[in-house]
Every structure is written in structure tokens, then in C-alpha cells.
Amino acid sequence: MRMLGRTAQNLFWLSRYVERAENMARLLEVGYRMSLTSRREGGASEHLISMLQAAEMDEAFAERHDVADVDTVSYFMMFDPANPSSVRSCLEAARTNARSVRTAITTDMWESMNGTWLEFSQIKPRDVRGAKLAGLLQWVRQSSHEFRGAMLGTLLRDDGFSFLQAGNFVERADNTARILDMKYYVLLPRSSLVGGEIDIQQWTLILRAASAHRSYGHVYHDRYKAHNIADFLILRPEMPRSLIYCANFVQQNLDTLAKLYGRREACHEATENLLKLVDKTSMDDIFAHGLHEFLDEFIARNNAVSETLSESYNFY
């Protein structure tokens, strides 16, 4: 029996919003730390703006703020209710979706989501500065992990689980691509420059944003290199935030839905199209074509997966 489209939609977006809240925290941490380590005149603002560009929030930010500094950017990304992708907006939307599908999720999942929202809603933006901002970003990430742990540990492996997991990894793929793209917005805006000398300290921050700092060292025993870091976050199938890992995981969960419901949909073709982009290529090919251009194409195909999945399973 096929799940109601509204229930499937709420589960898919519940998972996406939880992952997005975590990803906004990760992205802000990268921009914030890059701004602190910048040695160039005006560099701090440039890094923060590049982060907003990568998240496609720069125009919305400019409509509300004249200056991009740590205070204005962190408020916009963390607390601004007018920003639909702020951490506050994501957590509120996730809780709303969870409440709508209380019978389709477990008590542990609901308590985790509800508790996270209630705690976050009590935080006053003016109290979050400097070290406290870093602490809050870490708390958002841990809260996301708690919800995901509750889901993995208590939920039946049925169609609801597949919709939740598909949402999680569609969102995660989008974020990893944007974190990588942010680096090139700052340092390598033209494809002809891709592969040039890279600031190692900033590439280290990229790895930390993806929780890949230590695992990178287990795979590559030499010093940090742009080529290897990009390879690790794009083409390494054992790295759980890499593009190929996410694309594979989305396909696995949609294949499960096809088996449960007895037929394939347009979203399955879109997922195969996404996987083809990363499945049989190399970093040499990607750099030759242009990393920014490659990431743009990946984001577009990933968006197509979400759109066709919505149409295929009546998310309206």
C-alpha cells in the first residue's frame, strides 16, 4: 500500500530541514573561521559574502543588510525568521513536519526534534557572539546527530524510512557541493585558474566543515592538496559526506521505494543521471572541465532529483 503523498512529503522535508539546519551551521563555521584567518584588506567580508553566495543567500542578505560582518551574517543565517534557510526557520519547519507525522515517526524522534526546537527558541541572538557562536554551531550539529541517531535506532525500515533517508542525502549532497564551491568563489573564480596554488589553511577548514579532517589523513598520508581534498569530498565512496556517497545512497533508497511500490518513476531516472556525473569520472577530468562548472551541474541534477521525486510521489 502506497504512503499518502502528504505524509511522504512531510517525512522527506522533515529530514531535509534537520540536515539543512546542520549544514547552515557548518557553512557559517567555514565562513566565520575563514574571515578570522584572512590576511587581506576587506578579506573577512569577502569570505562571508562568498559563503552567502554559495548558499544562494547573498541577494536576500543584501536586501536586509548594508554590511556583511560576523554579527549581521550570523544573525541572518542562524536566527532571521525572514530567511527560510536560517537555522531557526529550518528547526521550526522540521518540528512542524514532525508534528504532522507523529504516527509515522517514533517517540524518540519526536522528543529529539521537539526538544531541539524548544531549546533553540529560548536563545537570544544578542547573547551569541565570539566563542558562544562557535559553541552554538557545535550544538546545532550535535542536535542533528541526535535526531538522526534516534531515527536510525528506532524506526522501521519501510517506505517512510526511505523518504527520510532520501531527503537527508539529497540535502547533504547539495551542502557538500556548496561548501566546495564556496572555496572557489573566493580563490579561483575562473575555471582557467582551477588547480593553482591553494591556501592550505583554508582547505583544512573545508575538511573540518565536512567532519572530514581526520578521516582525510587516513586516506591521504601526504600534506593537504587541493586535488586530494576535492577528490575526497567528491569521488571517495567511503566518505559519508562525499558527492558520490550521497548520490549512491539516494539511489538505494529510491530503489527501495520502487520495489515496495512495484514500479519506477521519473525520479529514478533523475537519480541515475545524478550518479552518472560522479560515477565514471576522475579529478583530472573535473579540474580540466572546471570544478565550479562541475559543481553547478551536480547541484542542478540534485535539484532535479528532489523535484521529480516530489512529482512522482504526489508531494502536493
UniProtKB/TrEMBL annotation:
Residues 3-313 form the DUF403 domain. It holds the Pfam family Alpha-E. This is Uncharacterized conserved protein, Alpha-E superfamily.
